Amino acid sequence: MTVLVNDKDFVLPGQPLTDEKEKAGRFTYVHGGVVRSAVVGMVRTKGQKTEVIPARGPYKPRENDRVIGIVVDIKPSYYELDLGWGITGILRARRAKKPGKESQVTVGDVIFTSIAFAGVKGVMLKGGKDAHRITRGFIVTISPTRVPRLIVRNRELQETIERESHCKLYIGLNGYIAIVGPSTRNEFAAASAIKLVETEPTLDGLKEKVMGLLRRALWEEMVEE
Amino acid sequence: MERAVLIREDGTRVDGRRPDELRPFRMEVGVLENADGSAYIEMGKTKIYAAVYGPKEAHPRHMAQPHRAILQCRYHMATFSVSERKAPGMTRREHELSKVIREALESVLFLEEYPRSMIEVFVEVIQADAGTRTAGLTAASLALADAGIPMADLVAGVAVGKVAGRLVLDLSEEEDKNCEADLPVGMAPSINSIVLLQLNGRLTKDEFSEAMRMARKGIEVLYDHQKKALQRRFAAYGEVAE
Amino acid sequence: MSLFRLGEKPYPTQILQKKLYELLLQGKRIDGRGLLQHRPVKVELNVVEKAEGSAMVTVGKTRVVAGVKYDLGSPYPDTPDKGNLTVNAELLPLASRTFEPGPPDENAIELSRFVDRCIRESQALRLDQLVYVPGQRVGVVYVDVYVLDFDGDYFAPAVLAATAALASSRVQRYEVQGGVVTKVEGEKVPLPLVKLPTAAMVGILRDKIIVDPTALEEPALDASVVIGWGTDEELAAIQKDSPGLIPESIMDEIIEISRSVTINLRRTLKELLRDVWNPGLVRSQEEQASRA
Questions:
Q1: Residue B37 main-chain phi, psi, to 5 deg
Q2: What is the chain B residue with the closest CA to C56?
Q3: What ipTM is given for this predicted complex?
Q4: How many Cβ atoms sit within 10 Å of the Cβ of residue A94?
Q5: Closest chain A CA to residue B117
Q6: How far apart, in whole angstroms, are the C-alpha atoms of residue C186 and residue A168?
Q7: Which of A42, A104, B76, C108 is close enough to C104 for a disulfide, judged by CB 3.0 to 4.6 Å?
Q8: Which letter does DSSP use for residue C219 in this model?
Q9: Nearest by CB: A70 against C3, C11, C15
Q10: Residue C7 to residue C220: CA distance in whole angstroms
């Protein structure tokens, strides 16, 4: 057994990680008896598998992931939702209990739901109680690899943004985030805060920076009045 | 009219390089805002941008493959990139090079990760001074890594030529115009694999082996810089949270 | 981060329009600019040495490169005593998800023709001074513009890049003796550019007028118009480049706004070009020619 990298090291595609083939995890591959990284990212060696967390990249749908999709087509018994990255999710339509009372879902609608399953055949989304239609606010897209920043430490940054901007955030792991707030000013302030979370190099002090940004953005409004 | 001396008695070339010396070069990753991944490369006077979009919805829809993403690649030169203005639009040469670069990239990409989708690679030559397909390949590989597309390895390329009877690394335009052979090579160094190979000209078997050896050494230097360019780019990008 | 580029997908634009307008009412835009504030402009000259002239212009995230090539050719039959000017622009697929690879589409052609008009109609380039043998041998100027990265309004940066490339060009010097044109080896001369055309894009959303919209703002506008000025006083080209209504009553105001924006751009460009271009350059060439 050879340990070639340390946990949390920055690795590049082609870089050898370990010679224990059984440990090949996500975003690695095996070539010539060596497990190598397939992406630019951070290697995790603790646990059963050695895997790489990509620094940047497309969204890969996983079961139970909460996502936001946009309705792009309506078929007789299901809807097609665009999840970005060339991924189309299928959402089964609820059968109308009474004739004439069909679902009001239309193209362009924003749906917050979870992934039921994702495989070679496609992506199936959960319907019924698990799916909410978002009718106000607007959507921002960020790199899916940055979404965890909003969710770590018990959603600390998400809650900070929500509290300071008075907006509700619906966070999709596919990188789509819906922002619903009391006014456009609040919503755009929340969007700026999300952008800050996405682009800042370090997580240290990020919470304070976010709070500062939101207080400045929304305090101005109060002062003007 | 005096014919330029391509190789001097001491073995140095027109621009003063040794036979196994690369031109000065520079690489940068993450240079365009919109593209999912991008890179810029200069090798001597050759200047190239590479951009990646995807995975995205395949179009036309009927081209989508059930098991994998399709890769599209366009190698294109600006009209002012060459001394004699090149007509706008795609020439036959640009079509051939688009295919060659695409296939080189396909050799290392894990396209099965994104079924039914499409990944587009654009290589745009702003200034051409020989070695554009190999420099374009090198930049495209960086752009794909920037975009987070999983791959077996980065790939880098360089051309070896035979000039005035001698094998030289990384032909400049002047050498390219006056050479007996031009051998562009692309490799995935960590997995010791050739991804791009063409020959234009005359070489003996031994010369070919020697040329491949020279190419490999040049590619390793470029590969090392690709890695450094990615490190720089992601140092600015910052911490990865899970 | 990006907000949805609504032009690409069938999502209703009304929501975004409403939100942008609410911000405009408070005198602000999403990126914090004032309504009539242009994004900062960066111009680099001579980025492609093989071209006779070149310039890279960056406006916000929009990036455009222009190159000038020069050659000898035959004049057009209807203008035997003028050189030729050909302007070509391309929206490279590198620049945006919405730009498809392939031959120039109507947007690229529109851009080509607008840039052409800005230079030609303003008479900024003295084509009559590019004649070597009248009716037989003239100078042919090619201006090629490529959009490398797109964040709204490629017109203004394209015109700026083309103008900067022309102004900083150095082309082969030729001399004519007995009807024969020969190169004067090792000598280069500037092109006869006597004016600096610049352009600006103006957008309308209800009763609000904004300058230099970003890619997010553009689809939410009611209408937009691109206006090119050859000099501080003279219009050279106008193109209403979108469907939508422009209230007749605000058209004069739009023209005046574009005038002050393009004057600023011209001033910035002049400063940048101070070592390589001035209108006097062309006059001294004429004097040289008449003396010869």
A1: -150, 150
A2: B126
A3: 0.91
A4: 13
A5: A86
A6: 68
A7: C108
A8: G
A9: C11
A10: 9
